[in-house]
Write a structure and sequence with these properties.
heterodimer; A: 440 residues; alpha/beta; Rossmann fold; 2 domains; seven-stranded mixed β-sheet; five-stranded parallel β-sheet; 16 helices; 18% strand; globular; B: 324 residues; mainly alpha; two-stranded antiparallel ribbon; 13 helices; 2 strands; 71% helix
Chain lengths: 440, 324
């Protein structure tokens, strides 16, 4: 009996194995006439999903729903969706590597026929997708991927990034150390051993050398990505006793490091400054060591500016998902709002028709727009790369409200911590920030 | 034997031309997946040759990645000829395969699989950390040219597809004839009894090295094709999940069969694509269930399905003698 069933299944499988390819071709293609079809891409599985992907996608969905309902406050009040067109979203998982991402990107553009794509957090994915976007002439707006390489080593017509790159985070941190820690004499780096960690440490140490040439580098630690155990590195840091430790750790690695270094009083002995530890504060709650200095890659999350738009988004997100919004959703949402601005500028210029990719790309260049993380300007990378301000604060447990607060916040204006248009960020730092406009 | 060679070559040529013509009418997003299938199918083909000897390499990503990086790094020097790059990648990964094969040929079963895995993870680690090789961000690969011909815009993907088809077709003919040759038939009996082979005067170690070099060459060619079609390569090509994917596709294909290697890759890629389209939050679950079901109901893989259909009835005379 079992053999008979297996035999039948086998015959069926024979048919299935031949027919699967055919069924892709027959998948329905929706007709996008009045709506704006938007592909949203981010990590929905894997190590970056918890830290960035899922919160980002949640924030994106919240923003799209609010835009479609016309509930977003000034300056976006009164305009539904993108220029009156309701937004229809298609979600895609960023996990799988560069080849799979190109496959899914082509699928989004050529089968789903989306009007634009927003997302991508992995630098490798961004570098892989960018040339394809130009080849297919479809606007893609990156939300993450910190590497400055994308627009500094290449130029693309249809590729934009509506958030700043990693240079800003580290220049702001160097300013912060120079300003707030005048007695510091020694510094050490504690970064993951891959492009993100290496680039972050390079930018920070170069910038600090410019601002405080007297500070000596006493150690450079590069633990494995995903190591999870940092006992040895914490010992080294305790022994070196540097006045400042720089770290660009994120996600599970960062949480592990905080939980292991906190009880050993590392944060009491040295000032550990993080580029982006802001995103784990709500998750760790009272386990966050006191006095940790961190930014969030922009004025995001608990560091958000006091504007109606920022306050609305921060509370709407917490109401819906029961956890405060961190940098992921803030960056993702600012990318959507950037695209909205570009689409609406393009519609003003073409008389209210649904704009083409060429028109959106032309309107996006050098556009500026308001976001929950403050004003953003597509000022560098020939109008394809955004700059924005940054903020750094010190963690403090608020027992009454049962949440971690960031106090003593320092703000840095966008033009102070980003290179001018057409200048490579590494050169800019080495030459001593020519053209930087700092308030103080 | 000569007529077999001619028939197989003619059959493969006809199939290649038919697919090339078909490719002209297929949307680009399917064409890209088809090119991926051809590239990965070559890696699987190599693994099938090893599986015939009961050897499973959990580190085939090493040669795949080596081929891709040879192709990518050479293309950054300004050389973009697809034929030359593919040849170079094949040569490079063959050399790597030969050197490592000398050492790996002394091991069997899980030790062979795990040593391969370890070696591929070493390459992954090195690539991840070396800034000069692009680090974790990877390396961009220039669009390929063909003996001086540089297709533009919309033709680019189709021309590459035809090129990949030709490479895969030629490799398949080679692999098929190899399995029917003396060496190929001797290799297939390694899994049955090594001592008997040694008594016949054959060196098992030599056979394993020979097959291993062929498999790593095929993987290198696959890597070069992937580098050229996607235009960007990352160290993940050598990561253990990539190698695991190849092993899974090989199990799905079954060891006996050339077309089934490509067929299984096509089924795998199609399921991943469709699952990703329709279940962005849980596509891995669909892929996993498919793996489970295919092992339950198709223990001999896709090639087993079609072979069973052609095999003589159990009561026929001469059961078990393979006469094709």
């Amino acid at each position: 009996m079992l053999r008979k069933i297996t035999g039948q299944v086998r015959v069926g499988l024979r048919a299935v194995s031949l027919a699967t390819i055919a069924c892709v071709c027959a998948a329905p293609i929706a007709n996008a006439e009045e709506t704006f079809k938007l592909g949203l891409v981010n990590f929905l599985s894997g190590p970056a999903a918890d830290a960035f992907g899922v919160p980002s996608m949640n924030g994106g969905e919240l923003m799209v729903e609010a835009l479609n309902a016309g509930e977003v406050p000034e300056p976006y009040a009164g305009m539904i969706g993108f220029g009156g067109m309701p937004i229809e979203i298609i979600k895609v998982d960023e996990t799988g590597g560069a080849q799979v991402q190109i496959q899914r990107f082509r699928d989004l553009v050529q089968r789903e026929e989306v009007d634009a794509i927003v997302g991508y957090d992995g630098s490798g994915d961004c570098l892989a997708v960018a040339p394809i976007a130009d080849e297919l002439k479809k606007v893609v707006v990156f939300s993450g991927c910190g590497t400055p390489r994308i627009f500094e080593e290449n130029s693309y017509e249809y590729v934009f990034r509506a958030g700043s790159h990693s240079t800003m985070d580290n220049v702001a941190l160097a300013h912060y150390v120079a300003r707030k820690l005048p007695d510091a004499k020694t510094v050490a780096g504690f970064n993951q051993n891959y492009s993100w960690g290496q680039d972050s440490w390079r930018d920070f140490s170069l910038a600090l050398k410019e601002l405080r040439p007297d500070i000596e580098t006493v150690g450079e630690l590069f633990p494995e990505t995903g190591a999870g155990q940092y006992g040895a590195q914490i010992n080294v840091l305790m022994r070196l006793k540097p006045d400042v430790v720089h770290s660009s750790l994120w996600g599970g690695d960062l949480e592990a490091f905080l939980l292991q270094a906190g009880p050993r009083k590392l944060f009491d002995r040295t000032n550990v400054v993080f580029t982006m530890a802001e995103h784990v504060l709500p998750r760790l709650g009272d386990k966050v060591p006191e006095g940790l200095m961190t930014g969030g890659r922009g004025a995001v999350g608990a560091l958000h500016p006091d504007t109606p738009l920022a306050n609305w988004f921060y509370s709407a997100y917490e109401d819906k998902y029961d956890i405060p919004a961190v940098q992921g959703p803030f960056r993702f949402v600012q990318t959507i709002l950037g695209l909205k601005t570009a689409v609406e500028i393009a519609m003003q210029e073409n008389g209210g028709k649904k704009p083409t990719s060429e028109e959106i790309a032309a309107a996006f260049k050098f556009a500026s727009f308001d976001t929950p993380s403050g004003p953003v300007e597509m000022a560098i990378g020939d109008g394809h790369q955004a700059i924005q301000g940054n903020a750094i604060g010190i963690s403090k447990w608020n027992a009454q409200e049962n949440r971690v607060e960031l106090v003593d916040v320092e703000y840095f204006s966008a033009k102070c911590i980003n290179p001018p248009n057409g200048v490579m960020s590494e050169e800019w730092i080495k030459e001593g920030f020519p053209g930087a406009e700092c308030d103080n | 034997m000569l007529s077999l060679q001619r028939n197989v070559a003619l059959g493969a040529l006809a199939l290649t031309i038919a697919l090339a013509v078909l490719g002209a009418f297929v949307p680009e997003w399917i064409l890209y997946t088809c090119a991926l299938v051809l590239a990965k199918g070559l890696v699987v083909l190599g693994l099938c040759l090893l599986l015939r000897m009961n050897l499973v390499s959990f580190g085939q990503g090493l040669y795949y990645c080596a081929g891709a990086y040879i192709c990518g790094l050479v293309s950054q020097m300004g050389i973009s000829d697809a034929f030359f790059l593919t040849f170079l990648a094949a040569l490079g990964s063959a050399v790597v395969g030969l050197i490592l094969g000398l050492f790996l040929s002394g091991y069997r079963s899980v030790f062979f699989a795990m040593f391969n895995l370890a070696l591929s993870m070493i390459l992954y680690g090195v690539l991840l950390k070396s800034i000069s090789l692009g680090g974790s961000d990877g390396v961009g690969v220039a669009a390929p040219t063909y003996l001086g011909y540089a297709p533009d815009g919309e033709m680019r993907l189709y021309v590459f597809f035809v090129f990949a088809l030709a490479v895969a077709g030629a490799s398949s003919v080679f692999a098929f004839l190899y399995t029917k040759s003396e060496m190929g038939l001797a290799s297939a009996s390694v899994k049955d009894c090594e001592i008997r082979l040694e008594y016949l005067g054959l060196s098992v170690r030599y056979l394993i090295i020979f097959n291993f070099v062929i498999a790593s060459t095929l993987a290198g060619i696959g890597g070069a094709l992937v580098a050229m079609v996607s235009g960007h390569i990352i160290p993940e090509l050598a990561y253990w999940t990539t190698s695991g994917e190849f092993v899974f596709i090989t199990v799905l294909s079954g060891p006996n069969g050339i077309l089934s290697a490509f067929g299984a890759t096509a089924v795998f890629e199609t399921i991943r694509l469709v699952a990703g389209q329709n279940m962005p939050n849980s596509w891995q679950m669909l892929l996993g269930s498919f793996l489970l079901l295919s092992i339950l109901f198709m223990p001999n893989g896709i090639s087993g399905l079609f072979r069973r259909a052609k095999a003589p009835k159990p009561d026929a005379v001469g059961e078990g003698i393979n006469n094709d």
